[in-house]
Amino acid sequence: MNEPRWQNWLSLILGIYIVAAPWVVPIFLPQTSASTMIEVAGSIAGLALAIVSMSGIFDPEIWTDWVKVLLGMVLLVIPWVADFSDNITFTYNFVLAGMVLIIISGLAFASRRPKIGRDWQE
Fold first, then answer.
1. Where are the membrane-spanning stretches (predicted)?
2. What are phi and psi of 30, to 5 degrees?
3. Residue 120, exposed/middle/buried by CB under 10 A (0-12, 13-18, 19+)?
4. What does each C-alpha distance from 27 to 14, 48, 59, 72, 118 come to in angstroms?
């Protein structure tokens, strides 16, 4: 049986941060402002990540790690697809969050024990 791993909790925190970043970052960096597109992209990507992470916490299956890798790749390209790459602060924010998520998911894959013997039937 799989038990929840710390990677799921960390990706949940990252998802919450992505949702909150368009409103939190301008508090700490007053020269930065978030456009509506940044708010929408952050809300959609962050909520999707939080939902998948909570699913991984309650029922840790390998599909959640694969979805988090895909969401990490989406976070890497969102600034260019949503056309806010000229806002360097939020471009770095999304790209770094995507890289961290891909690394976290890679560590989740590495932490899975191999299924041998009777384990492969579970």
1. 9-28, 40-58, 65-82, 88-110
2. -60, -25
3. exposed
4. 18, 24, 36, 25, 54
Three-state DSSP class for residue 66 = helix
User: According to the model, what pLDDT value does residue 1 have?
Assistant: 43
Please state at what angle helix 88-111 crosses helix 36-58, rounded to 10 degrees: 10
pTM of the model: 0.82
List Cβ neighbours of 43 (8 Å cut-off, separation of 6 or more).
19, 22
Query: Which residue in the block uniquely carries the two structure tokens 């508090």?
Result: 27
Residue-wise pLDDT tens digits, 87-115: 899 999 999 999 999 998 888 777 766 66
The pLDDT, as a whole number, for residue 43 is 93
Sign of CA dihedral 76, 78, 80, 86: negative
Q: What share of the chain is helix, strand, coil (3-state, %, to 5)?
A: 80, 0, 20
